[in-house]
Automatic annotation (TrEMBL):
Keyword Ubl conjugation carried by entry: no
GO molecular function annotation: DNA-binding transcription factor activity; sequence-specific DNA binding
InterPro entries in the cross-refs: AraC-bd, Homeodomain-like_sf, HpaA_TReg, HTH_AraC, RmlC-like_jellyroll, RmlC_Cupin_sf, Tscrpt_reg_AraC-type_HTH
Domain of life: Bacteria
Keywords: Activator, DNA-binding, Transcription, Transcription regulation
One Pfam family here: HTH_18
Phylogenetic placement of the source organism: Bacteria, Pseudomonadati, Pseudomonadota, Gammaproteobacteria, Oceanospirillales
Annotated HTH araC/xylS-type domain residues: 186-284
Protein name: HTH araC/xylS-type domain-containing protein
Length: 289
């Protein structure tokens, strides 16, 4: 079975954003690093949007193929295999957002956002003009450090995604939502998000998905390079890290909040994940983590 590479933008491209929820960059700058012929890959827990302002793009989304001229958008949910080739004049923006951030921003909107999309933008359309202006404003906000920037970027991201998904309603209503494995992987991640503090055993996740634990592990290894257990532990650690670095709660309080019955086990978990016990991890400068 082919192993599709999983690319983590914060680790592979810009480590300044390794722990950030949202990354926004000019396409041409990323193309200098990754190249303009990007072979099949995926982002296992990230949504990604390419807004192409100039040039033409050949795109593969799952088993669908497109050739589209700018202005256009490519919308890629987590675990969706995709590839593209662009010409030398192609320019635009790339937004990469953690899936739990998208869930938090859009779950109360009723918008369907789990299907990959590739569509043209109409030059003469008012919605297109407003959306492209929004892209430029977002880039300005992201590039310049300002007060309350974290909250501003979250608000801009919600506005960006809502406007993008509004425009897809008439542009691409029939594109399928991905292969069976990618759908299962997405459902698994949604279950993790709902139950990671309950410390479900793998067999319970598999039962909820209607597959065997072996099949679930195979899907996770193929799409993320990690086991089911590793993915669950990653999500627990993301929340543990946030609580340790950005709240004043005690280690005991955090351990109970995350479903650990014994704070000593939580301490061993953190040391296994970071090489440091929780109290030392808290004292280490964030940029060194």
């Amino acid at each position: 079975m082919q192993c599709i590479p999983n690319i983590n933008i914060g680790q592979a491209y810009d480590q300044r954003y390794a722990h950030e929820d949202i990354h926004y960059e000019r396409y041409e700058k990323m193309a200098l690093f990754f190249g303009r012929n990007m072979p099949l890959h995926h982002h296992d827990r990230y949504f990604q949007v390419h807004v192409i302002l100039q040039g033409s793009v050949r795109v593969q989304l799952d088993n669908h193929y497109y050739r589209v001229n700018a202005p256009m958008c490519i919308y890629t949910p987590p675990a969706t295999p995709h590839a593209f080739v662009t010409d030398d004049e192609t320019s635009g923006y790339v937004m990469t957002v953690k899936q739990e951030t998208v869930w938090a921003l859009l779950n109360d909107t009723g918008i369907i956002y789990d299907a990959p999309r590739c569509f043209s933008l109409k030059h003469s359309d008012t919605k297109t003009r407003h959306f492209l202006e929004l892209c430029q404003l977002f880039q300005t906000e992201f590039e310049n450090e300002t007060r309350h920037q974290h909250h501003a970027i979250a608000a801009w991201t919600k506005l960006f995604l809502i406007n993008l998904l509004r425009m897809t309603a008439n542009n691409n209503p029939t594109l399928n939502t991905g292969t069976t494995d990618s759908k299962t992987f997405t459902r698994f991640n949604i279950l993790i998000e709902s139950h990671y503090t309950e410390h479900w055993p793998i067999v319970k996740y598999a039962a909820e998905l209607g597959i065997s634990t072996t099949h679930l592990n195979t899907i996770c290894q193929r799409l993320s390079g990690k086991s089911c257990k590793h993915l669950i532990h990653d999500r627990v650690f993301v929340e543990a890290r946030r609580l340790m670095l950005f709240t004043g709660q005690s280690i005991n309080q955090i351990s109970y909040q995350l479903g650990f019955k014994d704070p000593a086990y939580f301490s061993r978990f953190i040391k296994r994940m970071t090489g440091l016990p929780p109290n030392q991890f808290r004292l280490k400068p964030e940029r060194d983590l």
